[in-house]
């Protein structure tokens, strides 16, 4: 383990979480393999926070995600149970690509790493996340839930109560605890856990029990949960939509009770029953019905908003980041991102921010509707990937300054000043990095033709986490919709372990959570 890393252990729970995770691990791996650009400061991001060094039985060094993932039978596809990386038949679930292996030295303090180079799949051939994962996983990463199926109409993990019951079974609880102890015990300084968890299906229950376990066993560590929902849905299957609503509501309440921070992530327009159109990005052309596309965009946002606790120099701990945003019971936050950040030719950062005017500079990614007219209580903002020469005004000396931003002498000052102008009373932290976000294949080609005529390999991104009053409306709307439900019509959800009293308690918890985001709240309450 490289000295100085404040390690984070990731739990990846569910199939859409697998899609987001696969893209995110691929993006980080691509950044590791990228030769350091003269413009970039080496080591802005510390990969040892999320990755770990290891050794095969043959003495070959490896570099794998510090990851525990749970998914259903039938989701591994092209990944093999027999590991090409760790050949030890005593270890279960050892998986690796059956492809060319290359050993390389990265641009960081790592000694060496092994990366697989499989054939890049076509979009039409991708059915599961393992079809396009390009990094090796450690033998102790995979925990397969055999009692439920990934495909087919029968044996699906579709209800919150089913998910909760999985981690009440000694078999799965012991498997998870065994993997937790393995990874935690090798850490020099574990700052906490991040949970990537499907919210729309039974994995919301798995995630809730996992968060409860982490809170009980690792008190004082940060637990940040990213609640993931696929793109837009239709009204064609009433049961599926009702279950999605119930799973999301139960998941948000239970996860917020056991996490330091919870952030829903979705390209949908709403968490409720009424379908809303997916969000729009000016410079992206994506198919909202494809998990492969939606998860790539969410992974890019995730790679950006998690920057504060992954910094090599002066990192902010997960606990500190959460405490800045979750005061007065505001455990749920929203995310937003501008992908890519639209810095035009010959433009500077002050020019671009000036053109944005008073509009919210990022696209909302938490299915909480239009943020206009809402207020923000606290925010963490990251801008990455801009050439340093563009950070400040490039006007000829003596030219009248269009805005105060053009008078700033550093990019950090420009960004902080802009956020202060936008919302003067908001508690803000901001970060400016030279390192862009990698979008090389198998990342899908989503970028509009007017962005570049060449293949895009890396992009600048603006990302934000916000404690927003929009959650008052969003959570309140969930209460209204759930109040109208007659759970007796959805007996199978009740059969999975949820009772009418549980729903009544859920409604009260949602009301309490919604009240935390009323617009009159003081920052210093």
Describe this structure in words.
This is Protein misato homolog 1. Keywords: Cytoplasm, Mitochondrion. Pfam families: Misat_Tub_SegII, Tubulin_3. The chain is of the alpha/beta class and 525 residues long. The chain has twelve helices and 17 strands. The chain has a domain at 7-33 and 44-82 and 128-336: Rossmann fold. Helix 4 runs parallel beside helix 5 (238-258). It has helices spanning 15-33, 160-166, 170-185, 203-217, 238-258, 291-305, 318-325, 349-356, 411-422, 470-483, 491-495, 500-515, and strands at residues 7-13, 51-55, 61-65, 67-73, 100-104, 113-117, 142-149, 190-198, 222-228, 261-265, 334-338, 363-364, 376-384, 427-433, 437-438, 458-459, 461-468. Helices cover 30% and strands 19% of the residues. The longest helix has 21 residues, at 238-258. The protein is globular and about 75 Å long. The model is unreliable at 87-116 and 521-525 (pLDDT under 50).
